[in-house]
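S.,

Sequence below, as promised.
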Amino acid sequence: MTAKFKDLEQLLLVESECGNEREFSEYCAKLLEKYTEPENISIDRLNNVIAYIGDRSKKKIMLTAHMDELSLMVTGITDEGFLRVYRVGGVDRRTLLSAEVTVAGLNGIVCSTPPHLLKPGEANKVPDYKDLYIDLGLKAEEVKKKVKIGDRVRINAPVTELLGGRFASKALDNKLCCFAILTALKKLKKLIDHKELDCCIVVLFASEEEVGSRGATVGTYGIAPEEAIVLDVTFAKQADAPGFGLGEGAVIEFSSFFDRKLMKAIDKAAKDNKIKHQYEATGAAYGTDADTVTLIGDGVKTGLISVPIRYMHTPVETADMEDVESAADILAAYIRTYEIGVEE
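The prediction came back faster than expected:
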């Protein structure tokens, strides 16, 4: 298996709060130097990472995944020194009570009212953001010296290796797919090194997806690719909800939003190379960067491959390395064979 847990773990430990992705961008830019010269890699004003791999005069195929993770933002400081917060992206409020966080380099916790002190009926309610506070353990005057309105709140969570090739972490949505793209490049390295690519691969690690696909919009406009393959996560089957099987392969998506010929070619590459995969089809938008990428400029032929995860938008998102490997294998297989194409 090309995808290694230790490599993924290193990626997950680099923070990338939505709108504050610079640290992660710089980390990924360094990783991409294995596949192209530094002058072919850039970080734009929105913190997007863009890397051109291969001859730029050839057809540009963009491989993209968003890299931003969910976080909170300080919106106020009480007279007692507690922080008020609001979400940046679709944070699941149910997971916040008693969570460990970091604000302006300071450790803190999200306050939780003891069950003994709850009023009748409150035990079954999830607090609104107006009722959530962070405790830094400092006196009010110290808090006001160290923390400012607008500071980001990182939700702290370990990367946990589970049994059977599975693992849990925050931000698998969507650093997991950034890792899948890096793994695909590793599989294509000989082709890249020998300058035998029949296309120009353009990697876009996009910022700010969780607040409206802002990075993907700007990045795609500048790249103007002929084709784009977007990677994002989808729902995996869990004890209390339906979904796709963990370890059963990446999900090839068919939608009225996506280019049918491209998706059939991706499907053919997976089948011809006997790569484990699953399918989903819908007539609606998916709520990923793929919905936006297809509309940029004169239009971009766009496809979507999804990696199943459990417990989405929590600090314990759970995935299977087999599905990451599957996504990387499908990308690599398509890049090797895309010119063959398929009939409508």
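The radius of gyration is 21 Å.

Coffee later?
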